[in-house]
Amino acid sequence: MAEEEQEELSLGAEGEEAAPEEKALDGQAAAEESGEQEESKTLLSDDGGEGSGDEDSDKSGVVPEKYEYESPEGIDLSEDALKMLETFGDRAKEINLTQKQYQAIVDYDMERGKAAVEYQSTAFDERIDAWGEEVKADKELGGEKLQANLGLAKKVLDGYGSDGFRSLLEKPSPENPNGLGLGNHPEMIRFLQRVGKSVGESDFIDGDGHKSSDVDGLQRMYPTMTQFN
Predict the structure, then answer these.
(1) Under a CB-based contact definition with an 8 Å cutoff, are residues 192 and 152 in contact?
(2) 63-85 pLDDT, tens per residue?
(3) Are the C-beta atoms of residues 170 and 215 closer than 8 Å to each other?
(4) 167-194: string of b/e by CB count within 10 Å (b at 16+)?
(5) In angstroms, how far is the first alpha carbon of the chain from the final one?
(6) Can you give the pTM of this predicted structure?
(7) How far is CA 67 from CA 9, 54, 88, 145, 166, in A?
(8) Residue 142: predicted pLDDT
(9) How far is CA 46 from CA 50, 55, 98, 190, in A?
(10) pLDDT-based confidence at 148, cuts 50/70/90?
(11) What is the Cα–Cα distance from 154 to 166, expressed in whole angstroms?
């Protein structure tokens, strides 16, 4: 009787140990039937996954021996710009940038610099125009006396102003990079007008050594002011 009970206990223990294996097999079979097999890809699998060896992924993060910047079509970089790129290339290599990352950063910086220059240029043009409006509203220079006062200033320039000085009075442009737009500045016009009054109209000598009394060319010297009739 004792031997029969011991045999039953032994068979019961074996049945309990086999249960997990049966469950695992049953689970695998169920997964196969439902198509839910465990993902077998790794990060480096050449199967189009995240770890694929696709060459479009910037050569898997390779740092080039030398960076080459492809500038936009029609854009020629100056020597200073090329030197800056070379310097940045050294830094890019230190932080292990790929060629694609290098190109993207430089492109962004180029666009940012271009936008900043355009903003500054527009802001400066607006400031020059605002100076002209101040002159028109000035009690001493503007109003009904505006044309006469600009005439005196022009005579001073004709008698004593050099080409370099005149260039400072114009707005900056590709043809006149040194232009500061001072021909609209209230204090510049005030200074020239007062010099004109002090010297006296009959004493002005133009660049050819002749006395000057005409005011033709005021519009050329003060392009943003009112039209002269």
Answers:
(1) yes
(2) 888 888 888 887 788 888 888 88
(3) no
(4) bbbbbbeeeeeebbbbbbbbebbbebbe
(5) 136
(6) 0.51
(7) 76, 21, 9, 63, 45
(8) 92
(9) 9, 11, 21, 77
(10) very high
(11) 11
Give the distance between the most distant pair of CA atoms in the chain.
Answer: 148
> Any alpha helices (H) in 161-203, and if so which ranges?
163-169, 186-199
Kindly report the length of the chain: 229
Q: List the structure tokens of 84.
A: 């800056």
Pairwise CA distance, residues 227 & 219, whole Å: 7
Average pLDDT value over all residues in the chain? 75
Q: Say how far apart CA 22 and CA 76 lie, in whole Å.
A: 73
The token pair at 166 is: 């005149």
> What are the DSSP calls for 85-113, one per residue?
HHHHHHHHHHTT--HHHHHHHHHHHHHHH
For position 8, what pLDDT does the model report? 52
Give per-residue burial for 85-94: e unless 16+ CB within 10 Å, then b: beebbeebee
> How far apart, in whole angstroms, are the C-alpha atoms of residue 222 and residue 229?
14
All structural domains of the chain with their residue ranges: 60-120, 138-221
The secondary structure of residue 211, as a DSSP letter, is: B
Closest residue by Cα to residue 140 from 184, 180, 187, 183: 187
The owner of tokens 């006469």 is 148
* Residue 223 CB partners (closer than 8 Å, separation 6+): 170, 171, 183
d(CA 152, CA 197): 7
In the predicted structure, residue 131 carries a pLDDT above the cut 90 = yes
